[in-house]
Amino acid sequence: MTLKNDNINDLVAFVTGDLDAAKKEAVLLWIKSSEENRRYYDEMREVWLSLTIGDASKKYDAQKAYKKFSQWVDQREAEKRNKVVTMLNKYWKYAAVFIVAIVSSWMVWETTSLKTAYNNEMVISAGKGQIATFTFPDGTKVVLNADSRLAFDNRYGVKDRYVTLEGEAFFDVHSDKKLPFIVNTSYVDVEVLGTKFNVSSYANEDRIVTTLLEGSVELADIKKKNYLLKPNEMAVYSKKWGSMNIVSVAGETSTLWIDGKYKFKNATLKYLAGVIERMYAVKVVFKDKDLQNEKYTGSMDKHESVEQIFEIMKLTSEFKLEYKKEGDRIYLSYKK
């Protein structure tokens, strides 16, 4: 595989999402033309994604990431050229035709061995108490909420744009009519062309919530029943009953978590405990089980300590709440 400087620049622009539509088709054809080209693209994409993943609390420097990526590409190409020169010098005494054969064989071996340990699935995750942000090569931006995981494979951006979500994420999807963006969850698939939406699909919660901010999305449940969402609509799928309920909402409230803020209306304390566990990386224990079903209306801000959150809840809730913090565990009970 040999790339000219213009070809390398186009491939870099494709990986970083800066290539115009006309050249994009040419790059896609090049990637699909051989397994060697595909592996080279996969490696470049991995490096770029590793530079774009970050903690949302830290400012992402796109120019710095691009500079590092460009330096990696230059170094990668220089290493390949140096290896070729070394091999040519070593075997210079052989006939020209033999030299060509050696160089060709090395090019195939070098690219193949580079990806021997390559895993077709790539996973981006955010731990408890964290938020992760990153950008796909096509320009699609994703923000992962705490305790969330997003997986995709090496077909992304070439054959499809299929991702699997466990947890919660906000998506700002770059439009591509040929390759719809599909978010797979345990019970619901969300398909879009280009839009902004939020999906919450935590395994320990009994519902999957999709909220649309801009554009349009189509949802399909496990029964293959389809639903179309309009901006400022929220689809709530019940895992227990297998039903979908669509309601009108203020769409922007679904993404308050990106800034560490939450608003609740008649939310159960069991649900709030899950949010607090993810926000503060703690474990909430109910000493009085009936307390889990109590309802609370109010707000939370991650800039406040977990103790402050519960102090506010004690003052504003309609039930008598008591809490005790021991290490990373918080014990809740009714106030006697």
List the keywords.
336 residues, Phage tail protein beta-alpha-beta fold, 14-stranded mixed sheet, 32% strand
Briefly say what this structure is.
With 336 residues, this protein is α+β, with helices and mostly antiparallel strands. The protein is built from 7 helices and 19 strands. The chain folds into 3 domains: 110 residues, no CATH class; 134 residues, Jelly Rolls (Sandwich); 75 residues, Phage tail protein beta-alpha-beta fold.
Outline the structure in words:
By secondary structure, the chain is an alpha+beta fold. The chain folds into three domains: 5-114, no CATH class; 121-254, Sandwich (Jelly Rolls), CATH 2.60.120.1440; 260-334, Phage tail protein beta-alpha-beta fold, CATH 3.55.50.30. The protein has helices at 5-16, 21-32, 35-52, 62-90, 96-114, 269-280, 306-316, and strands at residues 54-55, 121-126, 132-135, 141-144, 148-153, 161-172, 181-184, 188-192, 196-201, 207-214, 217-221, 226-229, 233-238, 243-248, 261-268, 283-286, 295-301, 321-326, 329-334. The strands form three sheets. Strands 1, 2, 3, 4, 5, 6, 7, 8, 9, 10, 11, 12, 13 and 14 form a 14-stranded mixed β-sheet that branches. Strands 16-19-18 form a three-stranded mixed β-sheet, with helices on one face. The chain starts with a helix and ends with a strand.
